Every structure is written in structure tokens, then in C-alpha cells.
Amino acid sequence: MTLLVAVGSGSANDGAVPLAVTLSRRESGPPEPLVLCSVVPTPWAPGPAKVDAEYRDFLRDRARQALSRARASVPDGIEVREVVTEAASVPTGLIDQANTSDARMLVLGSSSAGSIGRIVFGGVTSRLLHSSPVALAVAPRGHRGGEDVLLSRVSVAYSGASADDNLVLDAAEVARRRGAPLRLVSFAVRPPTSVTAGVGMSSEAQVVDGWIRDVSSSKRKLLADLPEVTSVVARAHDWFHAFDAVPWEEGEVLVVGSSSRGPIAQVFLGSKADRIMRHSPVPVIVVPRSGQRRWTAETPSPT
């Protein structure tokens, strides 16, 4: 299997390639192969044949140049293949190529409009976050990684729901292969309530306290089988301070499960996962609830 990396035609660093390099490295054996993919949109309205051909050649040439720049940033020792494909839209082309390449994960960068160090959704990322049949790894804007940066820790956004247990077990497998520790992070975010709210404020606080107790109980049961795992609860009045209260490392990723409201075997981003992604200072991996290709499946390392 491979990691499929979306490469845009622009020259700016969107973080996808450095993130893919980090994710490709294993504790033992060669790194996973990368497929660098640039999608050329098919013209929606046919024009004169010569004009269409020249425009397609222009777009394909830009795509090849972008792929060459991306490949130059991949360290030696990682198998890389470059693909230029045409499709009605970039998301459609990436999904088709994920199937063709037998990709277990699609790696994306952030939009160039937004805060450095945070994940910024562009049109392509937004669509894929509600339709991709494979897991998505999204890098914060300006993410650079580094030639020697390894996966330092795998954190999992844990809500205590039963579906999270399988997500944690899968993340534990990925962490084991990378020689990285695993951590569970729970976010208890409650907006500040007016002091005049009286009983309302007390009631909301009790609900949050009860949720924390339930999550802690679920964690204890889960950690009985995973004694090496650490856990933390980030409690704050807003998402910014919740993330700020948790220490993050270079080379860390945060794993999030997609919403149960969406279609089976596709990513569907719920409101809480959306907030987590937009505030995370580290790359986020969004995993479909189910699917034919598990995001943990990898090409076996030679022994």
C-alpha cells in the first residue's frame, strides 16, 4: 500500500510532502512508498480543439513542474512515484487515484489563506473531509517537518464513545510500528456562562464534570489492555485555550474519528472534529468509521 500525497500547482509549501515523509518512516524496514499526485481539471466546456489541447498541455506542464519540486524535497531512501491525472474536479481525481494506487491514506496540506501553524481548510480539503473513502492526514499551514523528523507521538482525540475504542487500538498499532508513544486526549470545552445565569451555570458545570468522570472510567477500562498509554483531559472555556493547555511535540499527530452521522466507509466531519482540526497545532489524521481499507494497513517490511 502507499501514501497518496496531493500536490497543488502552486509553489508555496502547504505541508503535505513533509508530513507524508514523517508518516512514511517506520521503526524498522524501509519507509512506505509515496505517490505524489497532481490533478488537472478537465475543461467543463469544450472549445476549439487546438485551444483545448494547448490549455491541457499548459496545465499538465505546470503539474509536472509542481511534482518535480515536491519530489526534490523528499529525502533519499523513500520510494516515490509521480502521477498527473485528469478529472472533473480535484477531489474526484484524488479519490480515483487513491483507489488506483491502493492508498491507505491521503495526505493534504492547508490552504495558503489563514494562520501559520494551524490547519486551514481549502475547497478541496473541505470536500474530501465529507466524502473520502480513505483516511485523511492534513498538515497545518507552513508545516515543514524535516529530513530527520520521525513520528514522535500519536495522540487520539477520545470522547469515551464506544467507537473510540477501535480507533485507539488502531492508533496503538500505528504507534507501535513507528516506535512512538500513544496518548489519549479528551477535550472538555464549556463556554463561560454569565454570572447571572445562576442555576444554569451550575447545571452545565455538573454536566461537564459528569462527562469527565465517564470518560475517565472508559479510559481506565481501555488502558487496562494498553498499560503504556498516557492520557490527559484538556478543560477550558474555549478551544484555543483547551489546546494551549496540552503539551505538543514536533513530529506528533492527532487522530480523530469521523462522525457517526455520515455514510459508512467515508470520512464525515462532525462539528466537534471540525473544531479540533481548526485548532490543532499538529497534523491531524481523520479516520472513516469503517471501510475496506484500514488506515493501519501497510505494505509489510522485508524481514
Task: Explain the overall architecture.
By secondary structure, this protein is α/β, with parallel strands linked by helices. It contains 8 helices and 10 strands. It has helices at 16-24, 49-72, 90-100, 123-128, 162-178, 199-223, 239-244, 271-279; strands spanning 2-6, 34-41, 80-87, 103-108, 135-138, 153-157, 182-189, 230-236, 252-257, 284-287. A 10-stranded mixed sheet has the order 3-2-1-4-5-10-9-6-7-8, sandwiched between helices. Helix 4 links the parallel strand 4 and strand 5 (135-138). It starts with a strand and ends in a 16-residue tail after the last strand.
Keywords:
303 residues, ten-stranded mixed sheet, 8 helices, 10 strands
Mean pLDDT across residues? 85
The number of helices is 8
| Overall strand count | 10
Strand order of the largest sheet: 3-2-1-4-5-10-9-6-7-8
Helix content: 25-40%
Largest sheet, in brief, is:
10 strands, mixed
Give helix and strand order, one letter per element, not per position.
EHEHEHEHEEHEHEHEHE
Could you list the spans in which at least 5 consecutive residues all have pLDDT below 50?
none
In terms of DSSP E residues, the strand content is 15-25%
Structural class: alpha/beta
The radius of gyration over CA amounts to 21 Å
Terminal CA distance: 17 Å
- The rough form would be described as globular
Give a quick precis of the structure.
This protein is α/β, with parallel strands linked by helices. The chain contains eight helices and ten strands. It is 35% helix and 20% strand.
